[in-house]
TrEMBL record:
InterPro entries: E3_ubiquitin-ligase_domain, Znf_RING, Znf_RING/FYVE/PHD. Residues 46-68 are annotated as: Disordered. It comes from Oryza meyeriana var. granulata. GO terms for cellular component: membrane. Keywords: Metal-binding, Zinc, Zinc-finger. GO terms for molecular function: ubiquitin protein ligase activity; zinc ion binding. Residues 177-220 form the RING-type domain. Residues 52-68 have a biased composition (Basic and acidic residues). This is RING-type domain-containing protein. GO terms for biological process: ubiquitin-dependent protein catabolic process. SUPFAM superfamilies: RING/U-box. Gene3D superfamilies: Zinc/RING finger domain, C3HC4 (zinc finger).
Length: 236
């Protein structure tokens, strides 16, 4: 994948809104999530040593809302059940669905974990005070997420060479990688990749080179201009 997402929580707060309609059987506890998302765009450039730099693409931001009834509010007394409920809720919110919220993409604790910790602590406190049973709670969770989409030009370039160039060297070939000089048949590295100039290298060897240069390491064939971040294409 040439685009990775880095997600961080810019702000998280909650409010517990007291429910007074105790006689109304249709009312149960509920959670309302209001989430603001700001997307920023960056690229790791060819010759950029792997460091992401911000693209000129303007930030995009939007707000999305979701409310869910929680018929059995005893789930808030159990951290794991609370986390799972919030996780499901976030994953199903229409304007969050396109973001990859998997745990690896978060800079720190994922939002569902942090929000679950907060609501769970509140529930435990209420329970210790003897106020939990029979009460109804409406939680308003306000979340502000910052998502940085990082396009990797070196990764995209390796992919573009594999897709756009006739691949003539098989993984079992006796030919050697032009960078580490090991034969591909030894199979200790990644699969061979032919560049448009036909020189072949292990994918991981040539990827490392593209962080420092934009030419074939053997013949200096110029490989610049073959890839661009999807958002720069949109802006063009
Ligand atoms: Zn190699
Ligand atoms: Zn070459």
């Amino acid at each position: 994948m040439a685009v990775e997402a880095r997600i961080s929580i810019a702000d998280l707060s909650y409010k517990m809104v007291p429910e007074h309609k105790a006689g109304d059987l249709t009312t149960c506890s509920s959670v309302h999530i209001r989430c603001k998302v700001t997307v920023k765009y960056a690229s790791r450039r060819l010759r950029g040593n792997g460091k992401p730099v911000r693209d000129r693409q303007p930030d995009k931001s939007w707000t999305t809302d979701e409310s869910r009834p929680v018929p059995d509010h005893s789930i808030f007394l159990r951290y794991e059940d609370t986390r799972r409920a919030l996780q499901e809720m976030l994953a199903s919110m229409p304007r969050l669905r396109d973001l990859d919220l998997s745990p690896d993409n978060w800079e720190a604790e994922p939002a569902a974990e942090r929000a679950a910790g907060t609501l769970h602590r509140f529930a435990r406190g209420e329970n210790e005070q003897g106020r939990w049973t029979g009460a109804r709670y409406r939680f308003e969770v306000h979340l502000s997420l910052e998502v940085t989409l990082v396009f990797s030009e070196p990764r995209a370039l390796v992919g573009a060479c594999v897709e756009g160039t006739m691949q003539t060297v098989a993984p079992g070939s006796d030919e050697a990688c032009g960078i580490c000089l090991e034969e591909f048949s030894k199979g200790r590295g990644s699969d061979p990749v032919n560049l448009p100039c036909e020189h072949a290298f292990h994918a991981h060897c040539v990827l490392a080179c593209f962080y420092k240069g934009n030419t074939c390491p053997v013949c200096r064939h110029d490989l610049s201009g073959l890839v661009a971040a999807p958002w720069t294409k949109l802006a063009a």
